[in-house]
Amino acid sequence: MEARYFYFTVHSARDLIDVRHFGEMKVYAKVSIAGMSKYTEVDLVNKTNPEWNTRFRFFVPEEDIIREDVDAVIELFCRRSFLDDKYVGELNLTLRPFYKGECNFSVRRNDSNRNESFGTLKFSHELGDKILVVRDSSSSSSSSKNFSDIIDILKFGLEVVKVGMEVAKIMN
């Protein structure tokens, strides 16, 4: 199966609604593409106008790119010390992979029926090189849902290699 690297950069957010009653906003973003989720660092300084400039690399099936069907969910959360992190808002998008440049979109809340903005999020994305992923011939489909299984296997393999390297350091 062919896939591509897909680079997604979360730049910043502006004018987010302050979801804290006490304390200051410390916001981070969770980006989910092709069944994988990655997180920015928490911005401890900029409160309702966080800046991350964090670039992520995802693997996306080539067939999704050809169909221009790359779904992305960007969720924003406020880090809290003693309770679960608090939901700030999100974007649900179908990206146009061949578009290259910065985008600004309004942040929405899934718990609000109102069609109002809860701030704006700035991001960019671009396609990378094509790669070949070898699949078991008994697999039924090459959709992005099955693709996440391959990614999980690769991540597990990387963890095994890391542990092996740490053991080798200890032994030497």
Give the percentage of residues in beta strands: 35-45%
**What spatial order of strands do you see in the largest sheet?**
4-1-8-7
Mean pLDDT: 85
The H/E string reads EEEEHEEEEH
Protein name: C2 domain-containing protein
Domain C2: 1-109
InterPro entries: C2_dom, C2_domain_sf
Explain what the structure shows.
With 172 residues, the protein is an alpha+beta fold. The chain has a single domain (2-171), classed as Immunoglobulin-like. It is 19% helix and 42% strand. The chain has helices at residues 62-66, 144-171, and strands at residues 2-14, 27-33, 36-39, 51-61, 70-78, 86-95, 101-106, 120-132. A 4-stranded antiparallel β-sheet has the order 4-1-8-7. Strands 3-2-5-6 form a 4-stranded antiparallel β-sheet, with no helix packed on it. A hairpin with a 7-residue loop joins β5 and β6. The longest helix is centred in the C-terminal third of the chain and has 28 residues, at 144-171. The model has no long low-confidence stretch (mean pLDDT 85). It holds the Pfam family C2. InterPro entries: C2_dom (IPR000008), C2_domain_sf (IPR035892). This is C2 domain-containing protein. Residues 1-109 form the C2 domain.
